[in-house]
Design goal:
- It contains two helices and six strands.
- β2 and β3 form a beta hairpin.
- The chain has a three-stranded antiparallel sheet with strand order 1-6-5. Strands 2-3-4 form a three-stranded antiparallel sheet.
- It has one domain.
- It has about 90 residues and is an alpha+beta fold.
- The chain is about 35% helix and about 35% strand.
Length: about 90
């Protein structure tokens, strides 16, 4: 299974909204990849910025898969990648 940029962003928004006790619409996310840091996201919640590392992104995707697809996946089953778009390949 593969999920793309929009679903990865939704996963991060939902995860951060739950952690911060705000509605998902109050969260903004920008995904990025860098040779030094790998996959990261800059997240804005109520005007405050925070950087998430790949482990945070994988955790958000794990929870998203469970809540929206009723699939229990582990970090070892998720591979992030990008070209012009970001995506996550999720092994069965």
């Amino acid at each position: 299974m593969r999920i793309y940029t929009d679903e990865i962003i939704n996963a991060v928004c939902l995860n951060m909204a739950e952690r911060r006790g705000v509605p998902p619409t109050a969260v903004e996310v920008q995904l990025s990849w860098d040779e030094q840091y790998g996959y990261t996201a800059e997240v804005w919640v109520q005007g405050r910025s925070q950087y998430l590392v790949e482990a945070n992104l994988l955790e958000a995707i794990e929870q998203y898969m469970l809540k929206h697809y009723q699939r229990r996946v582990f970090r070892s089953q998720i591979k992030l990648d990008f070209d012009e778009d970001f995506w996550a390949d999720i092994e069965d």
